[in-house]
Design a protein that fits this description.
With 59 residues, the protein is α+β, with helices and mostly antiparallel strands. 24% of the residues lie in helices and 32% in strands. It has a single domain, classed as YegP-like (Double Stranded RNA Binding Domain, 2-Layer Sandwich), CATH 3.30.160.160.
Length: 59
């Protein structure tokens, strides 16, 4: 699979949800104190992301 979500711990020991495409890091979330919160963030992105509008701020 070319794309995937990955949960890792950052230097502060927090759980971070990352999205990778062909091993390239595309985006990541803030740090969470629990793994469950990182999983909830992933589920929210999967649920709400497909319909998200594109906003451009090109000032």
């Amino acid at each position: 699979m070319a794309h995937k979500f990955v949960i890792e711990k950052n230097k502060a020991g927090e759980f971070v949800a990352k999205f990778k495409y062909n091993s390239e890091l595309m985006f990541w979330t803030e740090g969470y104190s629990s793994r469950a919160s990182a999983i909830n963030a992933i589920e929210s992105i999967k649920k709400n992301g497909p319909d998200a509008p594109i906003e451009e701020n090109l000032d």
